[in-house]
Amino acid sequence: MKRFLLKTWIINISICNYLEIPFSMSNIKYQLSHIFKHKCAVWEFTLKCNSKCIHCGSSAGKPRLNELNTEEALTLVKDLNSCGYDGIALMGGEPFLRDDWYEVAQEIKKNQMKLTLVSNGLDIISQIQKLKSLQTDCVSLSLDGGTPKTHDYIRGIKGAFDKVLHVINVLRKEKLPVSVITTVSKINFKELNLIRDLLINKKIAWQIQIALPIGRSSRDLVITREQFYAVAMFIAINLKKYSSKELPLIGAHCFGYFSNLLPELGLDPWIGCQAGRSVLGIQSNGNIKGCLTLPDDFIIGNIRVNNLHNIINSKINSKNFQFFHKNNSENYCSKCIMLKRCRGGCLGTAIAFNSFDNPYCLRAIEKEIFKNNYLPFRWKMNSKILEYKYLFNKILFK
Questions:
Q1: Of all helices (H) and strands (E), which one includes residue 396?
Q2: Long-range contact list for 387-393, CB < 8 A, 24+ apart?
Q3: What would the pLDDT profile of 254-294 be if each residue is shown by its tens digit?
Q4: Strand 40-44 with 249-251, pairing
Q5: Helix and strand element counts for the chain (H, E)
Q6: Bridge partners for 312 per DSSP
Q7: 8 A C-beta contact, residue 388 and residue 381
Q8: DSSP SS3 for 63
Q9: How many other C-beta atoms are found inside a 10 Å radius of the C-beta of residue 282?
Q10: How many other CB atoms are found less than 10 A from the CB of residue 358?
Q11: Which candidate, 289, 294, 291, 329, places its Cα nearest to that of 311?
Q12: Which CA distances in Å does 271 have to 28, 275, 277?
């Protein structure tokens, strides 16, 4: 589910920068996050892919019809820079399958923008020296199982597990920033502990997200709302158990919002969906939308038809706002006191689940799980961590 994860700006250029940031979030940081927000362009560089992931939200495999050529791609980099974007994440599909990836990556760095590449890890070893010469800001790899059997099954490639672990070790040896993304489904839900044990004390940033029922991913793969809450507790427990240097871990933008019990699980305090605000989604044929997770109904232009600056400033935020207003006027969120700050959570997640009345929202789920039972005050996790572990295991092995 690579499209979804990138709303977190590839774990904010991998939590390599997060290693020195304390976990607690203050009101001051919340206010400042409205002002100082980096702009990331998430670019589906090609839809061509050499994996066959069963949860792929892009249905990647064959290239998209009429993908941007090299000249158009280089121009787009310059246009993104002129529009104020300070980072580009190249993903797919598999970005290394395009012959011109290095030339475009060079242009990104030439324009003094941060460069992230998101890969399945199957075709990287031969590119290591190029990645080093680029001073790549982050290489992000998918790790979807704690065992070869599970990871290989999800990725559709035998031997994929051993290959990605080998790539991780090589990248670390070459001192290239590396992060790992795990997409949680019913298949790998109970292997989070195994994956964690592979990453501890290796300074590998780890982002956990959930599989959404879009693209090739079926609804049968999606974890339940109770399991979703259990994964959130897993993240919170491990954030308390390990320092950010031992295990730099965050939940993706699906893990919110404004829980009465759990702390912030993301790197930044939640200030509403960033689709079209600090994040821009670009399809490989030049289509533009606020986030690649959003359905094609949210395409607001194509760079071959209109100037990027005009596309961004004329339509993108108004379209997202209209959808938000329409779908949150008479549902669960409309009755929530946090609506103005939360703004309905991650727009792509809400649309994918069509769950406006029963959202994948920690605050909403808590009301169902705990009902009239005692709900500990927020930030009181230290004294209650054993209770959380018990509840986590109870839900996990239900």
A1: helix 381-396
A2: 388/233, 388/236, 388/237, 389/237, 391/230, 391/233, 392/230, 392/233, 392/234, 392/237
A3: 998 999 888 889 877 888 888 888 899 999 999 999 999 99
A4: unpaired
A5: 16, 10
A6: none
A7: yes
A8: coil
A9: 24
A10: 14
A11: 289
A12: 13, 12, 11
Encoded tokens for 260: 């009465």
Tokens read off for 321: 């706002």
The CB-side HSE value for 39 (13 A sphere, CA atoms) comes to: 14
Interatomic CA distance for residues 201 and 213, integer angstroms: 33
Q: 216, 217, 180: which is closest to 200 by C-alpha?
A: 180
Strand order of the β-sheet with 178-184 is: 249-251, 205-210, 178-184, 138-142, 114-119, 87-91, 40-44, 279-282, 287-289, 301-302
Secondary structure of residue 209 in the 3-state scheme: strand
- Strand partners of residue 205: 179
CA dist 321 and 287 (Å) reads 20
Dihedral angle computed from the Cα positions of residues 349, 352, 356 and 362, in that order, rounded to the nearest 10 degrees:
-40
Are the CB atoms for 14 and 177 separated by under 8 Å?
yes
| CB within 8 Å of 387: residues ≥ 6 apart | 376
Residue 196 CA, distance from chain mean position: 18
Q: What is the mean pLDDT of residues 314-319?
A: 61
Tally of residues, the chain = 398
CB 30 within 8 A of CB 83: no
Structure tokens at 369: 């799980």
Amino acid sitting at position 301: G
109 three-class SS = helix
**Residues facing 44 on adjacent strands:** 91
pLDDT digit string, tens, across residues 87-132: 999 999 999 999 999 999 999 999 999 999 999 999 899 999 999 9
Nearest to 246 by CA among 204, 209, 217, 274: 204
| Bridge partner residues of 206 (DSSP) | 180, 249
Q: Which two tokens stand for residue 251?
A: 């939940």
